[in-house]
Protein 1
Amino acid sequence: MIDLNSHPTIVWDFNGTLLNDVQACLNALNVLLQARHLHPISYAYYRENFGFPVIRFYESLGLIPKDAEDWENIGESFHMRYLFSKTLRLQPGALEVVLAFHRLGIRQGVLSALEQGLLELQLQQFGLAQKMDFISGSRSYDGASKLSAATELNLTHPVILIGDTLHDAEVAQAQGWSCILCSAGHQTAARLHQSGFPVIESLKDLLPILQSVL
């Protein structure tokens, strides 16, 4: 699954992969839905239906922005609620795996749809920022595709992207990267298996591979 002898670059997705934030996202989204007199959704429904671009998912729930400014306001409102959530925490095994890669001298970084400033803030908050060789976030709050940002990284192969959504698989395929998907995040294992890439239940599943070479 991970050939460390090939000296790969590890590209981490952040939300849902390193950070366990599904409940925080769901809570913030339901506040927005209720504010517009729309029905809240369940945790299970969220994971069965969430996807990129985020605006398409929101529109499927009836949360349709009037214009670009309204969509920006929705994004800012969502993130202000999200950031103050008490449910935000690292995924089990996240810190251990990141530290293990760092000790092995393996280059790693983050590619995220999260706004750059918020991404850097949260990586710092959870003690991961200084272990990353690069941090690539979004210039806005719109939760759009990461395809162009991945291209701009201009990484030398081999590269392994570790993510939690089918969009991560799309990014990896477009770049010719390997990919491992973790079903502890924003989409279910059944959905992730559609990608054809390996699917793990937890980042802890990577630890035995790393421990064998530490």
Protein 2
Amino acid sequence: MSYDFAVLLPECAEATEPEVLATASEVSGSAPVAATADPRLLSLLGGLEAAGATDAEDGWVSVWPIEPGEAGLAVPTTYADVDGNLVTLLRLAAADGLVLVDLNSQQVHRPAPGRPVGVMAGDGTRLGALTPERLSVLLAELPPEDPWLVLESGPQQYVQTYREPDGTFLFEWRDGAPGRHFRTSLTDPEAVGRRMNAWLGSVEDWGAGLDWERVEV
């Protein structure tokens, strides 16, 4: 089994979301190979190779080579790191204005300005782009049984929060290596949202003024 994505040309994804999902399913099924591959799709395929996604031993694309169709191409992947794969595909698709469709979760990710990000919450929410308004909703609606939210911009690069029973928020940030993993606490959910948005926007002093302690793993 594979975790299946489809990448569509924007002009083939201008319909309603159900119609876009149907097109993506056709692309992932038995879509005809295009006589002349669109250069935007070829650019994405080159990006996958450059990112190591097609490596024989360590790659995460489960079928290679991939043949572009007239509307787009299918990208079947392994389950090893779905969220990391999603972020990579979002970044590559956005570079050429392509539309990424997550066929397993039935979500359409259109190109969005800003930083591509993987989003996971305790209720299984997974998104590819965030607005401040959507982030506020996610924080306000953290499920009581699993009240956590993770924003990931790359391998081991994330911020995450967990709402404690007393209403405070455990807030963590990791920037790659284990020695760059820190934790603090916040009492105001709006402050959590502001800090997360600043991190998403690569604001230089997004974490300033907080009492960080290093997390020992």
Protein 3
Amino acid sequence: MSNKVAIVGAAGRMGRRLIDLVNSDAHLQLGAAVEVSSCPLIGQDAGEVASVGRLDIPLSDSFEGHFDAIIDFSSPDALAGTVDEAVSRHIPLVIGVTGLQAEHNAKLEEAASEIPLIWAPNFSVGVNLLFRIAEQVAWALGDDYDAEVIEIHHRFKADAPSGTALGLAKAVAAAREVNLEKVAKYGRHGRTGERNREEIGIHAVRAGDIVGDHTVIFSCLGERVELIHRAHTRDAFAQGALRAAKFLMEDKPPGKYTMAQVLGF
């Protein structure tokens, strides 16, 4: 029997890919497709919006029907409503929303006492492996090597730097046993002076339709090591989110889980 999932942000780029992949997954079904009330596609068939054929599930500005988990790739403004819905139904929640603030994190922490959930800055298997590798390389090289993180995304991305770039910077900071907030350097402009040895540089580029490139540079006065991940399509993120949902629907108790647990790292 297939599990049904509700997708929040269903008319967006990630939402449409999720609908397509759910539709082709033998173990999943689309249970609901949710969008903001201002979306001009409200009322249209979600399958037709995602170009997969009619599914008889309309885009709606409210949660309707039965589903076993929620996947949200919408926006920070919609997060509270999604969390409340998952808690009221006592079902798992997968959050792919970036640009979260302290109040959003507090909301997720509170919800984790009642439902199983995963929030990840990136659901790609490759990126989650990169988090682990970046931490190991940072530990091995030490602070003799300058560390810089560069991320490149499409022109439509609303937040900067990306959650993935911050995740990579946090991995480096963890290996060096420093507080990222104290050593992060977000871009450089003007007469900045010599680079501080403890800095972890984080830089954002926005151009065209680039899905997502992330590079971590470790460099000293003689060599450099670069760790690079390039996403070719959004399917890398969508497949990871579906994998996370399946993981949580395996009768997981309430709690905040990680993609590392999902992937067995």
